[in-house]
Design brief:
Radius of gyration: 19 Å
Number of domains: 2
Number of strands: 8
Number of helices: 15
CATH architecture of the largest domain: 3-Layer(aba) Sandwich
CATH class of the largest domain: Alpha Beta
Oligomer: single chain
CATH superfamily of the largest domain: NAD(P)-binding Rossmann-like Domain
């Protein structure tokens, strides 16, 4: 199968290499120099530089050419640029082409998930063929061939099974799911929780604190995801619990790194300036809080993360606010 990956960041590059083990993959890079380097050296000069891409991967900086190549389109563009790139390509996308989002974010202003943005831009597209790939998938570990699993969530189960075969390999197990809302909302919400976990680590707290935070974070993201229409069991799976654990405990997680820096007393602009990657939670926390307010869902952890990110609150103060909330049942 011919696959196009739009976006040559770390996760887009890793997914292109996964599919390129047995399929003809074209990856689109915004900068011509990156595309040329991939074709000449078999490596991305900006991301995952120590990992050689599989033989089926070639690169281009021509978006129209990239779209024309793909029988499957994988959108690996961060949430803040997702719509703009999709609008550039829209005229060249067939309405029946499966489209898979890799972005775990919320669009500012519209509060749309990325598959909703896709359907909003491609108004004639078959929505049952728009999906998301999500789970505990840190790009460096996947590129290194370490065993991992993911979920491909698409409303059309037959399409999900076709896509399952595209990405599945000896060290990468792919499960299917038709709960697109649950899987995608879990992926966006966990970024906020990873910032909170990073702050806890940066403050020097130990395993009890982290376990408590992850457990209550799962309850929080499940409440909101179910309110949006997701199925509760989705949040107990790879898209929910799996992704939440990986991003909350790993120093490789971009959002965890942001939180850790904040916990150590660094200023947010300085942390972002040191990173070569987008931490979706920094931008999406505001939108997620707005969605929670709209749905009438209580989100205490996300609220405290928002206060640190946008209001200058100290991480230690945020922890104190969480610990001194009124006593309640664990079922609430």
């Amino acid at each position: 199968m011919k696959v196009t990956v739009v976006g040559a960041g770390s996760w887009g590059t890793a997914v292109a290499s996964l599919a390129g083990a047995s399929h003809d993959v074209r990856i689109w890079a915004r900068r011509p120099a990156v595309a040329e380097s991939i074709n000449e050296t078999r490596a991305n000069p900006d991301y995952l530089v120590d990992h050689r891409l599989t033989p089926g991967v070639t690169a281009t900086s021509d978006l129209t050419e990239a779209i024309a190549h793909g029988e499957v389109l994988v959108w690996a563009v961060p949430s803040h640029g997702y719509r703009a790139v999709l609008e550039q390509a829209a005229a060249h996308i067939d309405s029946s082409t499966p489209i898979v989002s890799l972005s775990k974010g919320i669009e500012e202003g519209s509060l749309m998930r990325m598959t909703e943005v896709t359907a909003d831009v491609l108004t004639d597209h078959d929505a049952s063929r728009i999906g998301v790939l999500t789970g505990p998938n840190l790009a460096g570990e996947i590129a290194a061939g370490q065993p991992a699993a993911t979920v491909i969530a698409v409303p059309d189960g037959a399409v999900a099974r076709d896509l399952q075969a595209v990405f599945m390999g000896p060290a990468f197990r792919v499960y299917t799911n038709t709960d697109l809302i649950g899987a995608e909302s879990a992926g966006a919400l966990k970024n906020v929780m990873a910032i909170a976990a990073g702050m806890a680590s940066g403050l020097g707290f130990g395993d009890n604190t982290l376990a408590t935070l992850i457990t209550r974070a799962l309850a929080e993201l499940t409440r909101l995801g179910v309110a949006l229409g997701g199925r509760p069991q989705t949040f107990a799976g790879l898209a929910g619990t799996g992704d939440l654990i990986a991003t909350c405990v790993s120093s490789r997680s971009r959002n965890h790194r942001v939180g850790y820096g904040l916990g150590r007393g660094k200023a947010l602009p300085d942390i972002i300036a040191e990173m070569n990657m987008v931490a979706e939670g920094v931008k999406s926390t505001r939108g997620i809080l707005a969605i929670g307010e709209r749905e009438g869902v209580e989100m205490p952890i996300a609220e405290q993360v928002g206060r640190v990110l946008y209001e200058g609150a100290a991480p230690a103060e945020a922890v104190a606010n969480l610990m001194t909330r009124r006593a309640k049942s664990e079922d609430d």
